[in-house]
Amino acid sequence: MNIILFGATGHLGKAIATEAVKRGYAVTAVVRNAAKENALKQTISCNTIVADVTDASSLVNICKGFDVVISALGKSVSINDNSKPGFMDIDLTANTTILTEAVKAGVKKFIYISACHAERYPQLTYFHAHQQFAERLIRTDLDYAIIKPPALFSAFLDLIDLAKKGRLVHIGKGDKLTNPVDEADVAIACINAIHENKSNIEIGGPEILSRKQINEMIQEAVNPGKKIRTIPLGMVKGMLPLVKLINRNLFDKMAFFVEVIQHDTIAPRLGQMQLKEYLERKLSV
Ligand SMILES: NC(=O)c1ccc[n+]([C@@H]2O[C@H](COP(=O)([O-])OP(=O)(O)OC[C@H]3O[C@@H](n4cnc5c(N)ncnc54)[C@H](OP(=O)(O)O)[C@@H]3O)[C@@H](O)[C@H]2O)c1
Question: pTM here?
């Protein structure tokens, strides 16, 4: 089985590539430039194609000869990402170009990484883009699987940096629950999906935690004893209209974040790795 993987240089993409290679699949990773290609090849034994996913002409016939397409391609939600394309450009438009190529090439399966509860928040660009793409995928005749994790553990790497600088804050009560999941666990589900008949796979981690507990676990791992300040949710919400005027991408990320912390996001507890163990591993390297 020949896999072509988009988003292979991302947190989840790397885990998917690692898992696929470990299980004997031939993996071709699509990367955006030579520097990314070299870095990926240092750690994972895969073939690579350099292409610009924002330019449809660069993707013509890209899926030809592959059995399986996996897309973990998506605009980063990290506060450190300042790239120009927005969620609609990458998560919807670029993935749709890939889908068109996959249909043309007659691939056997298309596996897409969406997000848990994407269908619940059509007003938010992040979820809207994921859900729109999922619906386009469903409308094709391709065999597909849509993987829907809540937060990946890697999403908390920004919080580790903030905790190190003493800038980690609780926003509002922080009482809403979620079960974040290790990207390696999601990668296993993703590769299992190649031969399964399940088309929608929600996968969360083993522990259900409140947002406050997650912050405290991170602060404890990085700098024990440091007290975390609380910012009122209303204050952050109040900043959104101004941010929207100044920086649309930042607004879309903040609006996403502000919304998810107001709701429980719990997926079936299929992952194995615990957050505490993940943090210890990350902080030891
Ligand atoms: N993080 C989470 O907690 C979470 C939770 C649920 C669902 N998801 C979804 O899962 C998918 C993967 O997430 P992730 O955390 O692994 O994301 P990530 O680490 O930000 O990786 C995203 C991947 O997409 C590529 N990409 C983004 N913008 C690009 C552009 N303009 N041109 C070319 N490549 C571009 C990145 O390439 P570069 O390495 O070159 O930047 C990277 O390979 C996304 O769709 C995300 O929304 C994530």
Answer: 0.98
